[in-house]
Design a protein that fits this description.
By secondary structure, the protein is of the alpha/beta class. Helices cover 45% and strands 14% of the residues. The chain is built from 9 helices and 7 strands; from the N terminus they run βαβαβαβαβααβαααβ. A 7-stranded parallel sheet has the order 3-2-1-4-5-6-7, sandwiched between helices. Helix 2 links the parallel strand 2 and strand 3. Helix 1 crosses helix 9, helix 3 runs parallel beside helix 4 (102-130) and helix 4 packs parallel to helix 6. The radius of gyration is 17 Å and the shape is globular.
């Protein structure tokens, strides 16, 4: 069970896994601060969890650190988050290393690593003051090993998210804050499904053959472990990387 006084800030919740996380946390009794740069997706998620909202959903690009800082500073102290879900990121572009540029690496780091760093930097002090907090970062099976469906820049950024997670877990543990990462594999979000349809059938079957359970994961399955790590019952789990990939990486 979750203390209904807890407030969770979820980034990237206009669609996909993070929208399902918002639903799941609302069902657990948490109050929500929703953030996404897509106003339409954000509004859709907000309507679905309206009774749980602490404030109007924030249309915000979390790569803009000053804007994020201003938005969080504008919140009354009691409305600042106890829980942070860093869900922004992803990259479905399968690009060979020889074709990548520094611009690709910069983009991967900005969206997948810097956003998690910024949000953690700005939210952790309030958690520390309260002596309780939960931070969940989105890593990826790509950051655990290698990728068939993305590229080396993305792999490097997600591996760095895992490193950030472990160091923050070490430093924040005495403050009552847990920090964990979830390494999702192939999950059937709309974005992944669109990229999947663009690939040849032989390629799709090749990827599925590498997954012991023989299928992509569902958004519900992907969100469930994130919600668990946000809860009271996850207080002794920190610095962990939880694999949700159907056995793709064991």
């Amino acid at each position: 069970m979750t203390d209904s006084r807890r407030i969770a800030l979820v980034t990237g919740c206009g669609s996909g896994i993070c929208a399902a996380v918002a639903h799941g946390l609302a069902e657990r009794g948490m109050r929500l601060l929703l953030v996404d740069r897509d106003p339409y997706g954000l509004a859709r998620t907000g309507r679905a969890v309206e009774d749980a909202l602490v404030a109007d959903p924030l249309v915000l690009d979390v790569t803009d650190a000053p804007a994020v800082e201003d938005a969080l500073r504008s919140l009354p102290a009691p409305d600042r988050p106890d829980v942070l879900v860093n869900g922004v990121g992803g990259d479905t572009r399968a690009i060979p290393f020889a074709e990548l540029t520094e611009a690709d690496l910069h983009m991967a780091v900005t969206y997948n690593l810097t956003t998690a760093f910024t949000m953690t930097r700005l939210c952790a002090p309030t958690m520390a003051e309260r002596g309780w907090g939960r931070i969940v970062n989105f890593a990826s099976v790509a950051g655990r090993t290698y990728t068939h469906v993305s590229n080396a820049a993305y792999v490097a950024a997600k591996a760095a998210v895992i490193g950030l997670t472990k160091q923050c877990a070490y430093e924040f543990g005495p403050m009552g804050i847990t920090v964990n990462a979830v390494a999702h594999g192939v999950i059937g979000t709309d974005r992944v499904a669109e990229a999947w349809r663009e690939r040849p059938e032989q390629w799709r079957q090749s990827v599925l053959a590498r997954i012991p359970v023989g299928r992509p994961g569902t958004v519900t399955e992907a969100a469930a472990i994130v919600c668990h790590l946000c809860g009271e019952e996850a207080g002794y789990t920190t610095g962990a990387v939880i694999d949700v990939n159907g056995g793709l990486h064991i």
